[in-house]
Design a protein that fits this description.
Strand order of the largest sheet: 13-14-16-17-18-23-22-21-20
Strand content: 15-25%
Largest sheet: 9 strands, antiparallel
Structural class: mainly beta
Bound molecules: MU-OXO-diiron, calcium ion
Helix content: under 10%
Protein name: PhoX family phosphatase
Number of strands: 30
Pfam families: PhoX
InterPro entries: PhoX
Number of helices: 10
Organism: Shewanella aestuarii
Low-confidence stretches: 18-75
Mean pLDDT: 92
């Protein structure tokens, strides 16, 4: 569980719940037939080809192609993938569990040296801050594989590092003086350096992926790396600091949780629970209280060594954002304004700087996923704000997609083209299975009949307090939006709503009170940028739950709770990962990854179905993580022969390079978050 990083306070104090109790309505809608498919096919999904696959071989030989003629309506297409493994039982051991016929190995665990500046990882926790700056970070989360050749045996793995386990990071945990203040500079620098993103060159040799030490692509982005600001916030007074008086740069990326990628080959890392890293001991501004900036102390005490003789460039002072100078250029009152964004990284260019794409909003971003592409149409990016009662957003680019841009060698310029100018929207789910995307622009009408311009004077002011603007237009408060992903065949978008045990008033998209188990919602875009249609694909639940709890008819072989990581591969297989804390399911299994092929769940009329008692057997458990961990982050090679999955905050693992090897009873290893590479013993494709 990520309890250590999830902030349980309620920040959304608005009352955007304009729905009556709708559980009854919802239940009667459970087999709602999506009506958005035809619309979707017309607008964005035309021309997706799938040649017939009459083979009795489960291997999928055809993948969707980028549409080239977005005008002719065609019927939704269907994946030919058939899951070819038996759903595995739950597991509660210090090891991972996988289906028969597969093998799993540990790759790039925390502390793996990336270059010669780093000493080898030491099991006593004594590596230095300098070692950490040049080694793989801690608490792996979102991830993407970027191929370096057509053979599929060479590539770059980008890995998010969400937060740290200080007890594992240091020999005996963090050091404090008698006043509860941090005292050791190298410890704090090591913690900052364990955050961020790793770019790791990996190669397949003798059927095993290995990290290529000292490769020129290997690099770290940490909680201190200098990054550029782009979009509406760039060069505004909101970002003026003593370090960057012109508001053009910010230092570090923090709490990088879910991820995304772009059609032009860059990585997107998402800043989630960053507000607690900063403290304002004075009066909070409206945006600061809305997002939850800390008021008494920072999460790890990084500000404690502010003013130390050995401090460099205010590296610790910047986390205390209490105004102390005569103006913003003399202190760090605006330091937190440089956080809360989608950050773009070009993994192929080791000399490039990361860019914070502020047009996509500022909140606790879980992930960032682009919608189905169509030439000549805008690109859409989806991102959820993971806190209780927070919202789902999308950004629609002003620029329209040119497939030639996929091959540009100036990838950051492509980000400038598609991610700096556009319209940010927030979702409102209505009772009838349709919804509205509400623009967050100065002329957007608020629920009281005014406009956002009466509260905000610029688009940058809206971005700074994105959630506050969304409150005013009447967005639907959700049960903690986590990852979104897009079905490559139907174009339907799926979003995990992990849980919300504090919900006391249902709304149609979040129909369960005290939602301990979470659900996955999906939608299709409509004819205009402001329309969508939606339904709930599956509800998490314990198998033993009663009919009102186990709404999707799950059994032991697929019961799950708190869906979080979510990813389609290009074959149309949806991978669902969990970050669960509900005892009813943890008593049966550790966190896990399941698979299903949603586009094949159709009725006689070809309409997409949800997971129900009739279809639930199609949802299969593929992977279970070791004790105490969260399973998060999914990547797969273009040949589908290796899947990568991250294990975050394991308790007593890994014991060896073989991920399935159980740590012997009575032995305690220093736990290391790690990527697990999964291969099929016969060399075939994963999952089929
Ligand atoms: Fe970091 Fe919302 O999971
Ligand atoms: Ca996590
Ligand atoms: Ca997550
Ligand atoms: Ca989570």
């Amino acid at each position: 569980m990520s309890k250590a990083t999830f902030d349980p306070r309620r920040f959304n104090q608005s009352n955007n719940t304009p729905f009556a109790q709708v559980m009854e309505k919802h239940l009667s809608r459970r087999n709602f037939v999506k009506r958005g498919l035809g619309i979707s096919a017309m607008t964005a999904f035309a021309g997706v080809g799938l040649s017939a696959c009459g083979s009795d071989d489960n291997a999928v030989t055809t993948t969707p192609t980028t549409p080239t003629t977005p005008t002719t309506p065609t019927a939704p297409t269907t994946s030919s993938a058939v899951l070819g493994f038996d759903s595995i039982a739950g597991s509660k051991t210090d090891a991972v569990a996988i289906p028969a016929g597969y093998s799993a190995y540990v790759l790039a665990p925390w502390g793996t040296p990336l270059n010669t500046k780093a000493a080898a990882w030491k099991a006593d926790g004594s590596n230095t801050a300098e070692d950490q700056a040049n080694s793989v970070g801690m608490h792996h989360d979102g991830m993407h594989f970027f191929p370096l050749n057509d053979a599929g045996d060479d590539g770059l793995l980008c890995i998010n590092h969400e937060y740290i386990d200080e007890d594992a990071l240091h020999p005996t945990g963090p050091t404090f003086d008698t006043n509860g203040k941090r005292t050791i500079i190298d410890e704090i620098r090591k913690e900052i350096n364990a955050h961020g993103v790793s770019v790791v060159r990996i190669k397949l040799t003798n059927d095993m992926w290995e990290v290529v030490a000292n490769d020129a692509h290997n690099r770290r982005f940490t909680g201190a790396s200098v990054m550029d600001i782009a979009g509406p916030m760039a060069y505004t007074s909101y970002l003026e600091t003593r370090y960057s008086p012109d508001g053009s740069q910010a230092r570090g990326t923090l709490n990088n949780c879910g991820n995304g990628s772009t059609p032009w080959g860059t990585y997107l890392t998402c800043e989630e629970n960053w507000p607690g890293y900063f403290v304002n001991k004075g009066t909070l501004a409206a945006d600061q209280s809305r997002i939850g900036i800390a008021t008494s102390s920072t999460r790890y005490g990084w500000d404690h060594l502010a003013g130390d003789d050995d401090e460099r460039l205010d590296e610790f002072s910047r986390f205390d954002i209490t105004p102390v100078g005569a103006n913003a250029a003399q202190d760090y009152r605006n330091e937190a304004n440089g956080h809360g964004y989608i950050v773009e990284i070009d993994p192929y260019n080791p000399n490039s700087r990361a860019v914070k794409r502020t047009a996509l909003g500022r909140f606790r971003h879980e992930g960032c996923t682009f919608g189905k592409l169509a030439e000549g149409q805008p690109i859409t990016f989806y991102s959820g704000h993971d806190s209780r009662f927070e919202y789902l957003y999308k950004f629609v680019s002003d620029a329209v997609w040119d497939p030639a841009d996929a091959n540009s060698s100036n990838r950051i310029a492509m980000g400038d083209k598609y991610m700096n100018a556009g319209t940010l929207y927030v979702a409102k789910f209505n009772e009838d299975g349709v919804g509205e995307w509400l623009p967050l622009t100065l002329d957007a009408v608020t629920t009281n009949g005014s406009t956002l311009a009466s509260t905000f004077d610029t688009q940058a002011a809206i971005i700074l307090n994105t959630a506050g603007a969304a409150d005013l237009v009447g967005a639907t408060p959700m049960d903690r939006p986590e990852w979104a992903t897009v079905d490559p065949f139907t174009g339907s978008v799926y979003l995990t709503l992990t849980n919300n045990t504090k919900r006391t008033e249902a709304n149609t998209a979040n129909p369960r009170l005290k939602n301990s188990f979470g659900h996955v919602i999906r939608w299709d875009e409509g004819d205009s940028a402001t329309e969508f249609s939606w339904d709930i694909f599956v509800f998490g639940a314990p198998a033993a739950g009663d009919a009102e709890t186990n709404l999707s008819g799950l059994d032991d072989l697929n019961q799950f709770a708190s869906p979080d990581g979510l990813a389609f591969d290009a074959r149309g297989i949806l991978w669902v990962q969990t970050d669960n804390g509900a005892d009813e399911v943890t008593s049966y299994t550790n966190d896990q990854m399941l698979a299903v092929v949603p586009s094949t769940l159709v009725d006689a009329d070809g309409k997409q179905q949800v997971i129900s008692a009739e279809t639930q057997a199609q949802l299969k458990r593929f992977f279970v993580g070791p004790n105490d961990c969260e399973v998060t982050g999914f990547a797969i090679t273009p040949d589908y022969k290796t899947a990568f999955v991250n294990i975050q905050h394991p308790g007593n693992w890994p014991y060896s390079a073989i991920a399935t090897e159980v740590t012997p009873a009575g032995m305690q290893v220093r736990p290391r978050a790690a990527t697990v590479m999964i291969r099929k013993n016969d060399g075939g494709e994963i999952g089929v």
